[in-house]
Amino acid sequence: MKILLAGQPDREDLATLVVTELVTNAYRHGLNLTDEEIQSMDAFPADVVLKLAGIRRGKSYYLRIEVYDPNPTPPDWARGLDDHSALDGRGLAMIREQLALYGAISTKSGKCVVAEYELDHPTSS
């Protein structure tokens, strides 16, 4: 990821935030793990898969982040940052405003959560 985002520190920070949010959600909601279980993991679960790709559409370049998990229920992208009634769920609202594309795709084994955002310049790959 660092090579893909070389020279774009703000985009690297955003990528780290998006990956962390989506993978944590996959662990919490896709695998039904508690925060304590996630923090004490010795290895990454095989049921959660992360894919990163630099893509081009027209003259624009994007970073595409895909996280696969076995739970078919899509994430709630609609919750707002001002929804203080929930203990969690505001992370997606925090990142969604910075994304060019986001959503979930049903798969045979669960779902794929997708997030894309525009890069400042062409990728090196």
Q: What spatial form do the alpha-carbon principal axes imply?
A: globular
* Sheet with most strands: strand arrangement: 1-2-4-3
Question: How much strand?
Answer: 25-35%
User: How would a crystallographer describe the biggest sheet?
Assistant: 4 strands, antiparallel
Please state the average pLDDT score.
85
Number of strands: 4
Taking pLDDT < 50 over at least 5 consecutive residues as the criterion, the unreliable ranges are none
Number of helical elements: 3
Q: Give the termini distance in whole angstroms.
A: 11 Å
- What is the C-alpha radius of gyration, as a whole number of Å? 15 Å
Could you explain how this protein is built, in words?
- The protein has helices at about 10-30, 35-40, 90-95, and strands spanning about 50-55, 60-70, 100-105, 110-120.
- The relative contact order is 0.23.
- The model has no long low-confidence stretch (mean pLDDT about 85).
- It is an alpha+beta fold and about 120 residues long.
- The N and C termini lie close together (about 10 Å).
- A hairpin with a 2-residue loop joins strand 1 and strand 2 (about 60-70).
What is the fold's blueprint, element by element?
Elements lengths: L8 H22 L4 H5 L9 E9 L2 E10 L20 H7 L4 E7 L2 E9 L7
Antiparallel strand pairs: 1-2, 2-4, 3-4
